[in-house]
Amino acid sequence: MREIDVKLMTEKVGDLCVKANTDLGEDVLQAFDRAMEKEDSPLGIEILKELKENARIAKAENVPICQDTGFAVVFVELGQDVHLAGGNLNEAIQEGVRQGYRDGYLRKSICHPFTRANTGDNTPAVIHTELVPGDTIKITVAPKGGGSENMSRVTMLTPSDGVEGIKRFVVQRVKESGSNPCPPTIVGVAIGGTLEQAALLAKKSLLRPLGSKNSDPELNPLESEILTEINKLGIGPQGLGGRTTSLAVHIIMMPCHIASFPLAVNIQCHVQRHKETII
Ligand code: SF4
After folding, report:
1. Is 186 exposed, middle or buried (0-12, 13-18, 19+ CB in 10 A)?
2. Which of 145, 146, 147, 276 has the most CB atoms less than 10 A away?
3. 239/178 Cα distance (integer angstroms)
4. How far is Cα 241 from Cα 40, in angstroms, rounded to an integer?
5. DSSP for 115-139, written as a single string
6. Which residues have C-beta atoms less than 6 Å from ligand 1?
């Protein structure tokens, strides 16, 4: 049994909040480059260059990539041979978010749903904890912007809708979203499971590095096919036209009930932020 003080979690979560919001991943920058090679709209190419430049400035000057610094979504993979000491895990994570958003001068975006009164410190964070084998803790902080989260949906298809039903729903979702999620987007899709599991897995699918292949050979061609259809919509970078509406489609699939066919689509804007650490 390895003992880990929860204060270390607070420190790490705080750092990850700042890093995620200021340092766009190399995989996203490379995806911009690949998109520029394929894009034929001059304005689209110009926007992709601006997005890269924006990311460069954010990193160099340690300022947020976007004014919307997001809802702090924290994924924890907790080794079952870890003994947490010194306090409460959830409170330690909330304190990390509080400190990270305060010290990093990140916008606080969380409010009461009715009064819209801001909680003032970007808490509560949404924390997903999973018990895994081992004696380490993996923490991933993935701040999610409101514009792209608003365009996400869960639906319960019928089994007879089949793969064609999935394609139709995902492409239609991107079409109806238009410029709202600040394209180019990454489209996270979860097929199967239950309603709540599909929603969570669609978001988790966004953590996969851009440009990587799906480990399920059945899903690789489906991802390419849906991406091709999406990029025929002509929405383009920032919705101003072009071939680059989405950079990738990521799919996770789970078995489902014989009477059900859940489908979740989580749309992620080009500020594809997530940082992780293992302690
Ligand atoms: S959707 Fe993304 S890029 Fe657009 S405002 Fe929100 S965080 Fe920023």
Report:
1. buried
2. 145
3. 6
4. 10
5. T--B-SSSPPPEEEEEEESSS-EEE
6. 66, 68, 145-148, 181-182, 269, 271
- Which of 154, 269, 236, 243 is closest to 200 using CA atoms? 154
| pLDDT confidence of residue 112 | 98
Q: What are phi and psi of 234, to 5 degrees?
A: 80, 10
Q: Can you read off the two tokens belonging to residue 189?
A: 């899709």
CA of 146 to the centre of ligand 1 (A): 7
Distance 5 CA to ligand 1 centre (A): 35
Tell me, rounded to whole angstroms, the distance of Cα 145 from its chain centroid.
Answer: 9
Q: Give the mutation target among 150, 269, 272 for probing the ligand 1 site: most ligand atoms within 8 A of CB.
A: 269
Instruction: Give the integer Cα–Cα distance in Å for 169 and 187.
Output: 12
Using the atom order of ligand 1, give the atom closest to the CA of residue 144: 7
Which residues, in sequence order, are CB contacts of 142 under 8 Å at separation 6+? 20, 73, 74, 75, 203, 206, 207, 273, 274
Splitting the chain (279 residues) into consecutive groups of 10 residues, what average pLDDT does each group show?
96 98 98 97 98 98 98 98 97 98 98 98 98 98 98 98 98 98 98 98 98 96 98 98 98 98 98 97
What's the CA-to-centroid distance between 211 and ligand 1, angstroms? Answer: 21
**Position in ligand 1 atom list of the atom nearest CA 146:** 6
Distance from residue 189's CA to the centre of ligand 1 (Å): 19
pTM above 0.85, yes or no: yes
Among 254, 249, 279, smallest CA distance to 266 is for 249
Å from CA of 72 to ligand 1 middle: 14
